[in-house]
Write a structure and sequence with these properties.
4-stranded mixed β-sheet, tt1808, chain A, 6-stranded mixed β-sheet, alpha+beta, globular, 29% strand
Length: 199
């Protein structure tokens, strides 16, 4: 059992089986086997996350709970979506999206989500921008996450990517005064003025 992040070699590749043995305070993710530190979210990040949760939760409940929204920290184990579920030591990506929507309840277990959510939202912060924009973009694309939103708090902008022919296409870019509409839920209207109100 590892009780300190400093006991790990950050240049080494680890699996989910390794991840399960770590008992330290820092939050980390595994991206293709490599450890990524997660900075504590700032208050603006949390405000945006809370507002988005308030948009999704009642909507999904009213739809009969066919899909469920989760907020970080919530482990999502990712592997190539063309493969069946793998053993812990064969999984090399474990992420904690800011928000994710899962419509296949068989993917949810006592440790989080085993496989790709249908929809992921990541909220950028100065410490994680490169990871979200580059590394996670590729990871979510490869693993078949059908809709992916990237929120830019400083610019008050949301980019909406849709998976088409196994590649993400930027379908829309919403600004502060816009109504954002998920492709997955076309009757859900998200007023970004309210989402960004506290920033």
């Amino acid at each position: 059992m590892i009780t300190s992040l400093s006991d790990l070699d950050l240049t080494q590749k680890y699996s989910y089986a390794d991840y399960l043995t770590w008992q330290f305070a820092e939050r980390v993710e595994l991206l293709k086997g490599y450890i990524r530190n997660m900075a504590a979210p700032n208050p603006f990040h949390q405000e945006i996350s809370n507002e988005l949760l308030l948009c999704f939760k009642p909507y999904l409940k009213a739809k009969g709970g066919l899909c469920t929204v989760f907020v970080a920290p919530f482990d999502v184990r990712l592997y190539n979506h063309k493969k069946s579920a793998l053993e812990d030591n064969d999984v090399y990506s474990v992420v904690q999206p800011d928000l994710c929507v899962i419509c296949d309840k068989t993917k949810i277990d006592g440790r989080g989500c085993n496989g790709s959510p249908n929809f992921i939202i990541e909220i950028l912060s100065p410490s994680n921008s490169k990871t979200e924009v580059q590394d996670k973009f590729q990871l979510y694309q490869e693993n078949g996450v059908s809709e992916y939103w990237v929120v830019f708090p400083a610019e008050k902008v949301v980019q909406k990517f849709i998976l088409t022919d196994e590649k993400y296409l930027l379908e829309n870019m919403y600004a502060e005064d816009d109504i954002a509409i998920p492709n997955l839920f076309p009757d859900l209207q998200i007023d970004l003025k309210e989402v960004f109100e506290e920033i």
